[in-house]
Design goal:
This protein is mainly α. The chain is built from 6 helices and 5 strands. The strands form 2 sheets. It has a 3-stranded antiparallel β-sheet. A two-stranded antiparallel ribbon has the order 1-2. The two termini are 23 Å apart.
């Protein structure tokens, strides 16, 4: 199986050496062919578009949406788990949770297992908001991936899973 193309390229000739005479050629990185850059750029663009929708329609930012989304998916959730699942820092999660508590979308109660930890739960208002927001997010995602065939979509998710597992191994 072939690996990724070599994105580090040397100038083709000494004439292209813009650094100066007698110096080694300048290494070059084509960011448009560099997977970490492309994935990050795509993720940022997607996140920005979704945040615009969440902010305009529901007054939520990305961090708040992620907390709500994980609460829709998990019955046993703490701020620490949200940090782990979303890769957001503790302060960002704390601010998001506090804003959701202040809006009456989430409750935060001391854990019966460990009083130092607070369990997070959706309120009725939070469930109602998600019942409107989740279908919109799924519709938006469907529009985004409509350009892919079912096989391409499956392959994309499989490839992402492989990269995530590889990152766990080498990280």
């Amino acid at each position: 199986m072939e690996g990724p193309p070599n994105v580090f390229q040397e100038p083709a000739s000494a004439d292209e050496d813009v650094v100066g005479a007698g110096l080694p050629p300048k290494p070059e990185l084509d960011l448009n062919q560099f997977l970490p850059y492309r994935l990050n750029r795509l993720a940022d663009r997607i996140s920005d578009e979704l945040e615009r929708m969440y902010a305009q329609r529901y007054g939520l930012n990305v961090a708040q949406w992620r907390v709500l989304a994980w609460l829709s998916h998990c019955d046993d959730l703490t701020a620490k788990k949200v940090c782990t699942y979303t890769n957001m820092d503790k302060a960002r999660v704390s601010r998001a949770v506090q804003a959701l508590v202040d809006r009456g979308l989430v409750t935060r109660t001391p854990s019966a297992k460990d009083q130092r930890v607070h369990d997070l739960h959706l309120t009725r208002e939070g469930v109602a908001l998600l019942s409107r927001l989740i279908p919109e997010a799924q519709h938006w995602e469907a529009e985004l991936v409509a350009t892919l065939s079912a096989g391409e979509y499956r392959d994309l998710l499989n490839a992402m899973g492989k990269l995530e597992r590889q990152l766990e191994r080498i990280g």
